[in-house]
Amino acid sequence: MITTHSQDLPYQVRFTNGTQQADADVLPIKGGQGAGFGPHELLEASLACCINMWIRMQGDKLGIPVGPIAVSVTLHRDHPQQAIFECAIRLDDALNEEQRAILLQAADDCPVRRTLLKQLSFVRVNATP
Q: Are 13 and 24 in contact (CB under 8 A)?
């Protein structure tokens, strides 16, 4: 569970899982200070982190020495009915083609991607003061 608390700067929010914390904000063009990650950047980060971790986990499980991994995710929201996550994955050059194919297939199965592919719904519950 993530909990947020508004901060003194307009639109800045501190979020925490109870152990770790970070700040989110919007860009100055939208009235914020840019003093944290933007909400859509957090969506991109969630997917990019999960893909990176999942590739490493599957490599460890299969005995593939994955080496360094870099994942970039860009969320395109230009189309009114569609959101497109563009993912670029850079794997170690020392991997052979079979290892690379296995790890790239694993990337397509990361838990956050699987979650985003499900039908989503939102439920608001009344919070107690």
A: yes
Per-residue model confidence as pLDDT tens digits over 48-75: 999 999 999 999 999 999 999 999 999 9
Q: How far apart are the C-alpha atoms of 85 and 79, rounded to whole Å?
A: 12
**Tokens 């100055």 found at:** 28
Tokens matching residue 62: 């299969």
Residue 10 CA to residue 24 CA, distance in Å, equals 11
- As its CATH architecture, domain 39-117 has 2-Layer Sandwich (3.30)
Prediction pTM value: 0.92
Helix axes 39-62, 97-107, angle to 10 degrees: 140
In DSSP terms, which residues pair with 14 in a beta bridge?
5, 23
> Which residues make Cβ contacts (< 8 Å) with residue 10, sequence separation at least 6?
31, 32, 33
Quote the CA–CA distance of 29 and 27 in Å, as a whole number.
Answer: 5
Query: Considering only CA atoms, which of 95, 103, 94 is closest in space to residue 55?
Result: 103
Residue 64 and residue 103: Cα distance in Å, rounded? 9
Placement of tokens 């499900």 in the chain: 118
